Amino acid sequence: MKKILEVKNLKVHFELSSGLFKPKKVVHAVDGIDFEVFEGETLGIVGESGCGKSSLARALCGLNKITSGSALFNGIDLAKATAKQWDEVHKQMQFIFQDPVAALDPRMTVAEIIAEPLVTLYPNMKQTEVMEKVFSTMKLVGLSQNQVNRYPQEFSGGQCQRIGIARALILEPKVLICDESVSALDVSIKAQIINLLQELQQKLKLTILFISHDLGVIKHICNRILVMYLGNIMELGAKKTIYSDPLHPYTKALLSAVPVANPELEKAKVIQLLEGELPSPVNPPHGCVFHTRCPLASEACSLSRPTEKIVREHSVSCFKVN
Amino acid sequence: MFVKAKNLNLDTPKTKGFWLSVFSRLARNKLAMTSGCIIVVLTLLCIIVPMFSSVAYDKTDWGQIMQSPSAAHWFGTDSLGRDLFVRCFIGGRITFEIAFAAAFVVLLVGIFYGAIAGYVGGKLDTIMMRIVDVLYGIPFLFFCILLITLFGNSMALSFVAIAAISWLDMSRIVRGQTLSIKHKEFVEAAMISGVSNFKIITRHVIPNLLGIVIVYAALTVPNMIVMSAVLSFFGLGVTEPMTSWGLLISDGAQNMQAWWLLLSPATLMVITLLSFAFLANGLRDALDPR
After folding, report:
1. Residue B14 lies in a domain
2. Which of A33, A262, B23, B63 has the most CB atoms around its CB within 10 Å?
3. What is the pLDDT of residue B65?
4. Is residue B114 part of a domain?
């Protein structure tokens, strides 16, 4: 399989301004991660709130600045890309937002919203050609042509998300980043949008980076799963093995928290509770970032950061896993 | 805008645009509509009355000094025998001219200044807003007197003075709104679509600001009227024989025994101010229906 995106030691830090004379505080949102994305796969990124998964996604499409490291996409290093190169990147990598309604400008019609990326990135395209594309994309995502002159507030959440998907797809991108794209939808609509995404992926040979905290959704849609905690990768592996054979103590805890639909099984299940709170990304713990809450932690974990190693086809960052 | 689906001769049902639905909500608010009509009528009167009146606003008639309202002089005459009816409307014309022109400058400068400061953020925002803070510190009347001593007394100057002080509020309001709009996802979506910053401001930020800006503009105009009245009351800006509502009121306040001198311009001004307030209120309700 061909690599489409190669992320190396990527860091996304935010400076907190805390007054003129106080020392600057730095939020280590993404703190040195490495992974690859292969063409045509769906990579799921999971982790609790505040673990840096959104910062990562936003950095990959230019909404956050990359502090250091590199992210190679189609020969362009996103960490050093110029404005022109970003235009090229945006033609091939698009983003689907969490809140479907907030992602659409309330003052624009559906046609204007969907056409905006096309009109901006291909300024010489003819008006009729643009509209043809708008209509074909609308059909693709299951919107009807006669909705083209309406405003977003006249649509339901699910339809708004379809409009958002149409806007992302009109450029015929190779990669789609979905940042919690179904979390704001109710269950039946969620299923529709997930099925639509899977359908589109097959039709258009899309590569999808699917970010979610919902392990059920991730299990349904992804090929490989990347587990993040406090800006670091804990575990990365194929879906089947991650769900059936989690190695990292954090992944185990995360999976044990997923509710089971069968009440008897749910009662019998042992939930592995993590102690304490998520440490602040302003001062991440020394050594392994997870050691403050890890049931297996020992002295050695607080001294140095574990490097990733391959155990039973997973890539795991933990001293205790062999 | 930049895509015209309407030109494509499609069978697409038109839905009410945003502004059309705002207007239909506004039309249902009787108080606001009445106020709007009053403003339009007053504006027209201010244009028409001095044009077609048989007496000029500065024509003195020594036989008709301090006459109370009559069939010949509907609002009475002043201490120089000038017809107050014509003077009220020519004064209104000047007042409206200053108010509308200043409001226009305030809108233009305030929106762009605030939108740029809010959208760009960071150091530029800090610098731009500190400039606003410093200008806020200058007392209005002191600033006007300073301008007049430097450049001499004229009507244009009072307009400049008012505009120069009033855009500060607008820029602050616009900046605050821009800050909240900037982090909305549709702006980020536009960034990912490669839209330039300037276009994001003009295409996404400003149209979404317009609601609050229109309401504030409707509240700004009466503010300007009061300010120009205050200036004229102190004898700054508009000078005799030209007049404005402020000047007429000041004149009337000095001759309280001739009640009509105060009553007519004051009534006109109060009606105008109230109308603008009700219109702004109605606009606010129409712009965000809850």
Report:
1. no
2. A33
3. 75
4. yes
